[in-house]
Amino acid sequence: MGRGGPREIVQLTGDRDAISSVTFLADGKTLASGGGGMVWLWDVSYLVKPLSFLCAQVGRSFTQEEWERYVPEGPAYRKIC
């Protein structure tokens, strides 16, 4: 899809054949998926403030080149740490 359309933001691992429903919990930081008598909870809290998460993971601001590689359709480059 083109810019502005739906795009995958994260790929979760699990038994995809068994998942029949997905929902966010009220906290907005937990994704629940279920099916086949099982429920999986996924911590997606890093999606609430993705730039803060990136800064914490890298321990520094991205370079311009890194930003263009990892955040191509996001906001314009800026130091985040």
Into how many domains do the coordinates divide?
2
What is the tally of beta strands? 3
Rounded Rg: 16 Å
Order of helices and strands: EEEHH
- Counting DSSP H or I runs of 4 or more residues, the number of helices is 2
Largest sheet: 3 strands, antiparallel
* Helix percent band: 10-25%
Distance, first to last CA: 31 Å
Structural class call reads alpha+beta
InterPro entries: Quino_amine_DH_bsu, WD40/YVTN_repeat-like_dom_sf, WD40_rpt
Protein name: WD40 repeat domain-containing protein
Organism: Nonomuraea rosea
Describe the structure.
With 81 residues, this protein is an alpha+beta fold. It has 2 domains: 19-45, no CATH class; 49-81, no CATH class. Helix content is 20%, strand content 20%. It is built from 2 helices and 3 strands; from the N terminus they run βββαα. It has a 3-stranded antiparallel beta sheet, with no helix packed on it. A hairpin with a 2-residue loop joins β2 (30-35) and β3. This is WD40 repeat domain-containing protein.
What labels describe this entry?
3 strands, alpha+beta, single chain, 2 helices, 81 residues, elongated, 2 domains, 3-stranded antiparallel β-sheet
Give a brief rundown of this model:
The protein has 81 residues and is an alpha+beta fold.
Question: What are the SSEs and their pairings?
Answer:
Blueprint: E1 21-24, E2 30-35, E3 38-43, H1 50-58, H2 64-70
Antiparallel strand pairs: 1-2, 2-3
